[in-house]
Prior knowledge:
Chain A is an alpha+beta fold. Chain A contains 3 helices and 13 strands. The A-B interface holds A 120, 122-124, 127, 129, 152-153, 156, 158-160, 188-191, 228, 286-290, 299-306 and B 77-78, 161, 164-165, 167-169, 171-172, 174-175, 177-179, 181-183, 185-193.
Amino acid sequence: MEERPGDDRPQLPPPSLWPVGFAVGVVCLLVGLVISWPVAAVGAAIALVFGFLWAREVATGRAYEAPTADALPADQGPPAMPESTPGERFPRSRFLEGATLGLGAVIGVIVTLPAAGFALLPGFLKQKQHKVDLGPISDFEENKWKVVTFARDVTNANISRRTAFVRNNGLLNGVPSFTVISNRCAHVGCPVQPGGPVFEKDEKTIKTDNGDVLITPVLPAAGFICPCHGGSYDQEGNRIAGPPVRGLDRYEFDIVNGRLILGDLYSVVKVEGSGKTAKIEKVELHGPGQHADGPESWLYPLQPPH
Amino acid sequence: MAAAKSERRDKLQAAAMYPLDWLEERSGLVGGIKYFLFRKVPSDSSWWHTLGSATLTAFLVQLVTGVILAMYYKPSPAEAHSSIEHIQHDLWGGWLVRGMHRWGASVFIILMFMHMGRVFLFGAYKYPRELNWIVGVLILATGLFEGLTGYLLPFDQTAYWATVVAVNINGTAPFVGPYLATILRGGAEIGPDTLSRFYSIHMLLVPGALIGLIGLHLYLVVRLGVSSPPWSKEAAGGEPDDEPPPERSGLVQPGPRAAGVRRRPTE
């Protein structure tokens, strides 16, 4: 077969694996230069050996096979593959379609799941409330109500200020008993107000590890009343009138070294009696507006962590 | 003389049109916009039909003023309210742009309801436009959610307690309520993350959804045509009667009701 000028037969080099080894050797050499000399030496050796083999193959041209026929224009000669019938699907195109959709879905899920989890889950995790030190119990005279304002989370004091109504009930079996009522209305969460005078002149500020605690004497003769929608509660926090669906929530408390320490909130179905002998029907903390008893409470079977 | 002048005029016109032609040849945008702006509407459509465009305009005002307010607003509990006061009292034009956003929010909601009332009273929600009514209701809901999330941002007493109440009302939904409230707050209580969460929802998440929904709403308006008022003698879609209806007229333009012809896509 004679060589013609302008002959555009492809002069492809034969497929060869040696360049792969050569590339691996070069990479190894470059990485070795950064991390350790022995690795660089090994890399150089690999590159040399494979480079030599590659060069030998190119030089001998052993694997090159000349085309067996003259080149033909594309529109002549036999068709490379049979004509497809309209609508025919090839396994390759089906595979590519499935791979595109499938891989797209996998990538979408891999990206979306962590992002959605980050958007939604933190609100449900690590929601344990801090304990709050309200200062020595000597600031709470027996059978007197106080409005106490404190920071639930001292690191975010300006947005975690909470108010509780606190009454020292005196000793019960030798242990001080307190009534600590949250001011969050059980209707939709407005702050309830004491139904009686607040003696702001006698306000006291107690310094604690938890920042400033404000203690103000109060006489809630008419119980507690919500300014938003008129919910009314008696002094034990039982609902008397208005839209609330249950009584006011209460705080767990503890006396540690003569100081009053508030713990978690809980919801109350009903309080019978009053003061230290009151019988309190406790339930897990519910959000405002959520029934804690009766058939309506079946609508709120599971509470997220509070 | 006259011929020379007209030739010059043609040349000038060609030169002026060249950029538009360039754009049209490569994108079809000019034709698309022409189609959108100069499409046929019923000849007896009235001022009532402008309520939708008015709502869209109110939304665009919210979009633009909101983007600018975001340049000065700081969504952290310590800084939020003071940054609003800074916008309101110190910055040039801040009172105006914030006022536009604040009052424009109400205008947007009111116009949505008026547009909805117009569509209802004109019966424009009927076949084949039911889907557009549904999309419109979704726009109304997302628009109201914009109002809810935006209300917290001034971070004063009104904003705080209104949000407490709104989140707690969500919390009373059966079964999912307590979880919904936690998701909204980003925690068991309203905290520092709640403000930035509402801010992100208010300026990124919900506007994105609204833009998509409004795009779909407009696409359906253009595809289905504007409906005639109920007292109209014209066919919906506004094609004159003597023209033969196009191939897919059953879907796009229901035939004249007076003729008693009801073309369905299946027929």
